[in-house]
Amino acid sequence: MAEATREEEIQARRSDFGLRLSTSMSKFGPLCVGIDPHRKVLSEWGYQVDAEGAEMFSMRMLQAAHGRATAVKFQTPMFERYGSKGYAALERALYAARQMGIITIVDCLRGGLSTTISAIADAYFKPGAPLKADAITLLPYYGARSLNNLTEEALSYGRGVFVASLTSNTEGTSLQSAIRQSGSYKGKTVAYGIAGTAQKFNQDIDGMGSVGLIIGATIGQWITTGGIDLSQFTGPILSPGYGWQGAEAQDLKTVFAGTRGNVLVTVSRSIATQGPQIDKLAQATESIALDVRQALSEATKETASKNSAGDGRKRDITARKIQTNVHAPSSASSHSTNGGSGRDGK
Q1: Which residues does the UniProt record annotate as the domain Orotidine 5'-phosphate decarboxylase (predicted)?
Q2: What CATH superfamily is the domain 2-299?
């Protein structure tokens, strides 16, 4: 009994981030506000280009996101450039987001050897972590399985991770589309192997899993070339590239056709350029959130329509087979029925 209870507790922690994220997405939609205090934006806002300016920027963006977006994503290099003061600003911004009840993603693209894993967990996941976040981004190019221990650490604390798979920068295509020469995903693309490794953590989880992918909204038809079927992926998908980087609503429909409400689109500069007035930032957030929700909803509807049409064709074929069997001689009918059962079973 005690062992069963412990297993349930472990499973609950492993699914915690995915559950919280899906609940928030159901309420606020598929928008994640990126908090990227670019030097140019800070200057345009009339802020000093320093740690204090980055913190003030972050607090304003949090106010705009609160109650209008599912999550916020902090771009750590924008804070790291200011050294210890920048880290302190990020720490305070993360604390403010937690107090507001906003889901936080730290875009730090961490990865490495097993000896560094515990340090990363100490920084972002464990109780009392200085940069405590709901999820972080990971870079899998030490090998996707090199992230297993860190992912397990995150899940054990009810946190999540997003693993870079098909990124929004064109320079990544040559590496991500490379064909694997060995291992369990031999003959598949590198991106496919990353997605497959991530999905294993989401198996046996009811609803949305806690291990996600980063899939750029700018990749277009390469989602098919990369061999990844996102309709089979049950974790969250974090998608940069919409707006400032060039992706539009049609791109979301193309790339994410087949998904089932698990795409979280991150937008930063398209919102930030409307500041620093809170009302304008809030208006931009609401407008973009609506556009993103509609585009992804249409992608889902198109897929549902295709599936429905396919089901209809299958029913017509089945009906014709049944009708043929009914009017055929008994011996032929028996033969046809056996053959039909054999085909259905394959």
Answers
A1: 30-284
A2: Aldolase class I (3.20.20.70)
